Amino acid sequence: MKVAIASDHGGMNIREEIKKLMDELGIQYEDFGCECETSVDYPDYALPVAEKVARGEFDKGILICGTGIGMSISANKVKGIRCALVHDVYSAKLTRQHNDSNVLAMGERVIGPGLAREIAQTWLTSEFEAGRHANRIGKIADYEEKNL
Ligand code: RB5
């Protein structure tokens, strides 16, 4: 598995924590910033990561900002992206099993590094269950094809 990770200035600490986790799990990743001392704009980080996942260059993406909201709104504008904003372990598991989310967003001003780590580990290691859920995701994909 290859993961693209990025954050804005509001998510840099959790980004580092998740990189440590991926090192421990032996998961390959690339860090797309930010390298910021000052404030940056979250779409400048969310959209390139989402595009890399949508193009198949990476299997999954992880995006962190202050709330995770800006990152998730931005990533979900990219066709083929199912970005889940997650702040609990149960949702992390279910959004992989049911939604086959391919991007995870979290907010560093909402949760601490310990919980973010557990969420990321659960999300990275849970599998899509397909079946009836595949049909539902197919409806989203059909909408994207017909309405863009
Ligand atoms: C930056 O101040 C903040 O707005 C951003 O990190 C994020 O929370 C946006 O959704």
UniProtKB/TrEMBL annotation:
D-ribulose 5-phosphate binds at D8, H9, G66, T67, G68, I69, G70, N99, R109, R132, R136. It holds the Pfam family LacAB_rpiB. InterPro entries: RpiB, RpiB_LacA_LacB, RpiB_LacA_LacB_sf, SPI_LacAB/RpiB. The keyword Isomerase applies. GO terms for molecular function: ribose-5-phosphate isomerase activity. Its EC number is 5.3.1.6. The active site is at C65 (proton acceptor), H98 (proton donor). It comes from the Bacteria. It is an enzyme of class 5 (isomerase). Keywords: Isomerase. Belongs to the LacAB/RpiB family. This is Ribose 5-phosphate isomerase B. It comes from Peribacillus cavernae. The lineage of its organism: Bacteria, Bacillati, Bacillota, Bacilli, Bacillales. The gene is rpiB.
